[in-house]
Amino acid sequence: MTVEQQTRFRTLKDIPTPDYMSPGGSLCAGCGGLLAVRLFHKVLGPNLVWVNAAGCLTVMVNYPYVPLKSNWLYTAFASAPAGAQGVRDAFDILIQKGKIPAEEDVKVVVLTGDGGAYDIGLQSTSGAMYRNLDFYYLCYDNQAYGNTGFQVSSATPIGSATATTPPTPSEPGGNMFKRKDLFEIWRAHKPPYIATLSSSFAVDFLRKVEKGSKMKGPKLFISLAGCPTGWGYDPRETIREEKLAVDTGIWPLKEAVNGEVKHTYLPRALKPVEEYLSTQARYEHLFRPTKRTEVIRMIQNDVNNYWKMVSKDENVEIRLVGE
Amino acid sequence: MENDETKGAEVTIRLGAAAGDGIQSAGEMMMKVLARSGLYISTYNGNQSLIRGGHVWFHIHAGTRKVYSLGYGIDFLVPLTQLAFDQHFESVNTGGAVIYDPSIVKPHDLQQGVRGIPVPLGEIALKYDKRPIMKNTVALGALTSNLGVKFEVLADAITDQFGRKNPGVAESNIKAAREGYDLVKNLGAQSFELKYDYSCTKPVLTADYAFALGAVNAGCRFYAAYPMSPASPIVHWMASHAKQLGLTVFLGEDEISVINATIGASYAGARAMCGTSGGGFALMQEAVGEAAMTETPVVVVDVMRAGPSTGLPTKTSQGDLNMMLGISQDDFPRIILAPRDSADSFYTAGRAFNLAERYQVPAIILLDFAIGDGGYSTVEGLDPSFTVDRGKVVSVPSPGAVSGGWFRRFALTDDNISPRSFPGTPDLMFVAKTDEHDEWGHDLSDVNSGLKEFLPLRVKMHEKRMKKLESIKKELRLPEIFGPTGADITIVTWGSSANPAREAVQRLRMQGVSVNSLEFTDLYPLNESEIKRILQVPGKKVALEANYTGQFETLLKRETGIIMDAHIRKYDGEPIYPSEVEKGVLSLRKEVHAVV
Ligand code: SF4
C-alpha cells in the first residue's frame, strides 16, 4: 500500500476538528502564518513542544491572549534548531530511563519565520540536519521580517517593496535579489522529508505533514504565509492570494522524500504572474505610475524556466505564460 | 539658563488607543501642528510589541519655552478605548480635560477639576468611511480647537500625512477633523491657549533619525544592519535615501555579518557604521574585539531597549552600558558616547567618526527608545558644517615604514597611533591580524609565542593599544551643568536621563530648591582628574539612570572613587518622568535639612 493510500486526509472534510490554537490571538487578522501553524498542529496532535525563534508568531504568545495548548520554548534568534536538539535529547534520555512513556510520542517542532529559516538560523538548521536530529521544522514564509516592520530577508522575492528595499526614483523596482532556494539548500543535506505547503491547498498540506510524521530524522516544511499587513491586501483574501501564488506557479507545491523531488500539484496551465502581483501593495510600484514591464517579465521568465525543468523532470505538460 | 527657568506656557497631550488604530501617525500629526505653531516639542511613543490590539499611546509635551521630556501629568487625554482611559485618567492634571467618545469610553471617576468633553468621534468618522478609522482625525480636530490653534495648521498636517498617496483620503480626513474642530468650538469648550507663532516652524527629529543625518553629514558611506527594534528606523531612512546620499546600505543575514561587513568596509577605506539594539550587539561582540585588535575604526550604534534577552522590545532602558564596558574578551580601548537628545545625536555621530578614525578604535553610541523611535525633540539651527578627520592615513611610505614589501602598519609611535593605509595603496600592503602581531602585522601567536625575545613585544603592542585611552580621554567632553553652579543637590545623569532631570530642576528651583544637574554624554574613557574636580561639590549628589544596578554610578566610582549620596534608578521600561526625579530629590532634601 502506498503512503497516499494510507492517508487520513482525502477531502477538506477530513480536516480534524480539534484545534490546538484558540481564537482571539493578537496577530494580524488574516495572517497566513497562523493558519499554517493551526493546520500543522491539527495533524501532529497536542503532544508537542514548539521551539521558536523571534518572529511574528512569537508575538502571538502574548498574555493573556496565549492561544496555545502546547509547550513553547523561545530561543535566541539564530538557534532554534539547537534548542530543539537539547529538548529532543532530554526527552530521549527520559524515555530511556522510563520516566516518560515512549507512547506519548512527544514531538519537537522548530517554528520560525523566513528570517529565522533563511538568514540567521540557517547554520543551526544545517547542524541539526547533519546530526540527523529527529525533529520537525515549520517555516512560515511571509517573505520578509514582518514583526519588525517588513524588512527584506533572503526569502523576499524580486520586485517586492519592503521597508529596506523601498522603490525609489533611482531603484524603482524594489528588491533586486533573487530569493534563496531554501528547499534545495535543505535537500542538499538529504533529510528524509522536505515539503512546501500552502494553507490554500489544505488537503495537500495535511497529507504532507502526516507523511513526514511517519519518518524519523529531520522533517522540514516551508509554508507560504500570506501576509496582509506586509504584502498589502485585504485580510479576507489570504487564501485567494496563496492560491494565486500556486496557480501562477510562483509557489510550487512539492516534496522530497530522501532527496527525491516530486511535485504534488501540477497546474496544467500557469496563470500569468501579473494576476498575482497586481493584487498586492508590495508590488504596486511595478504597475503605477508606470508599468515596469521588464521586472514583471523577469519574474514571469523565472517562473517559466522553473516549470520547464519540472515538465522535463516529471514528464508532464504544463502550459507556460507567453511562450 | 535663567531664562529656561522662568515657567513658560506649556501643554501635555496623550493620545491612547489599540495597536493598529493609527495612534502614532495621529500623534505625529498633532506634533506637527504644534511645532508649526512655533512650540518646542518633546514626545514619547508608548508602544507595545504587538501587531494589533493591546494599548499604545503617544505623548506630546509642547511649550513656548524649551521642553525636554514628558513634562508633568496630562493636560489633554484623548482615549480612543476604555483601556486607554483606565490606564491614564489618573494622570490628568487639575484644569485638564478628557476628550472622548461617549459611546466607547465611560469616563468614570474623573477627578475634580478635570473636564470631560464628549465628542461623537465614531459617529462623525462613519460619515466619511464605512469603518470608523477616521475617529482619531476627528479627535485631532477637537483637540486642535481646544488648544485654540487655527484649523489650517491641522489641515496642512493631514495633507502631509495622506496627501501624496491619496488626495481623496486627505480630503475626507480634513472634513472629519473639521467637524470635530467646529463641534468643540461651538461648545465653547476651548480651555487652553498658548502663544502661537505660525510663522516659525520648529523642526523636530527623533534621536535615531538625527543620528543617521549626522552620520551622513560626517561622511558615512557604508551602513549595515539587521532588523531589530528599536534600531530599525535608522536603516529604513538610510535605505530609502541610499542612492541619493551615495551610501551603501548592507543588509546582512545576522549581526555577525553586519559588523564584519562594516569592519571590512572601514578596512578598505570607507567611513563605516552599523546599528542594532542590545540583543544584536551581543552577537557583534567578538567582532568589536577584532576591530580593536586590527585597529580598524568602526562606529556602532546601539538603540537600547529593556532586557535581558528580547526583554521589552518596545520599552526603554539604559541597561547596556555594562555590556559596552566589557565587550568581548580581554582589554582593548573603546569609546562610549551617549547623546542626550536629537540635536546631541546629530553632532555625536560626527564626533564618533572622527574619534574612531583618529584613534583607530571602535566607537559605541548608546541611544535608547525614550529618545529614539518616536521620541521627537526640537532641533533648532542644526549646524551642518563639519570637518572630516580621517586621522593618520598615509598613501606614500615614509622612511623606514616599508621593508621587504611590507608596511609597518602597527608601528610603535610616540602617540601610540600608527599610520594606516588602505588596500590598493602601492607599497603599503599589510596583514590585519586578529592574533597578537608585531609592528608589521606578522603574528606573535604561533612560532614566536612565549619565546623570551618576543614577550616584551607583546607587552609593547598591548600597551600601545591601551595607552590610546589616555589621549582619548583628554579629547572627550566633560559633563555639562544644567542650572546654576553650586547647588545643594546635584543630579548626575548620562545620555537621555538628562532630559527628565532638566525638567525636574526647573520645577524644583521654582519651588526654591537649590538643585542642578550634571550631564554626562561621553562615558568612556573618563577623564578622572577633571571629573573629580567637577564633582567636588559641597552639595549632595544623586545619580539618575534607567537600570537596576546603577551601571554609570558604578563606573564613576570605579574610575574616580566618587561615591554618590543617593540614586534614582528606574527599570520598568517606561521613560523616567520628571515627577519621579522631583520626588527623589525632595526626599533627599529632607535628609539634607536633617543633617543641617
Ligand atoms: S505581519 Fe504578516 S506574518 Fe506577521 S502577523 Fe501580520 S500578517 Fe502575519
Please write out the topology.
The complex is a heterodimer of chains A (323) and B (596).
Chain A: H1 3-6, H2 32-44, E1 48-52, H3 56-60, E2 71-74, H4 80-96, E3 107-113, H5 114-120, H6 122-130, E4 136-141, H7 182-187, E5 193-197, H8 202-213, E6 219-224, H9 228-232, H10 238-247, E7 254-257, E8 260-263, H11 273-277, H12 293-313
Parallel strand pairs in A: 1-2, 1-3, 3-4, 4-6, 5-6
Antiparallel strand pairs in A: 5-7, 7-8
Helix pairs in contact in A: 2-8, 4-6
Chain B: H1 2-5, E1 10-19, H2 23-35, E2 40-46, E3 53-63, E4 74-79, H3 82-88, E5 92-100, E6 115-118, H4 121-126, H5 135-146, H6 151-163, H7 167-187, E7 204-206, H8 207-217, E8 222-225, H9 232-245, E9 248-251, H10 255-267, E10 272-276, H11 278-293, E11 298-304, H12 321-325, E12 335-337, H13 342-359, E13 362-368, E14 376-378, E15 402-403, E16 406-407, H14 455-475, E17 480-482, E18 489-494, H15 498-510, E19 515-520, E20 522-524, H16 528-535, E21 540-545, H17 551-560, E22 566-569, H18 578-595
Parallel strand pairs in B: 1-4, 4-5, 5-6, 8-9, 8-10, 10-11, 11-13, 12-13, 18-19, 18-21, 21-22
Antiparallel strand pairs in B: 1-3, 2-3, 7-14, 12-20, 15-16, 17-19
Give structural attributes.
heterodimer, A: 323 residues, alpha/beta, Rossmann fold, B: 596 residues, Pyruvate-ferredoxin Oxidoreductase, domain 3, 3 domains, seven-stranded mixed beta sheet, six-stranded mixed beta sheet, 19% strand, globular, disordered N terminus
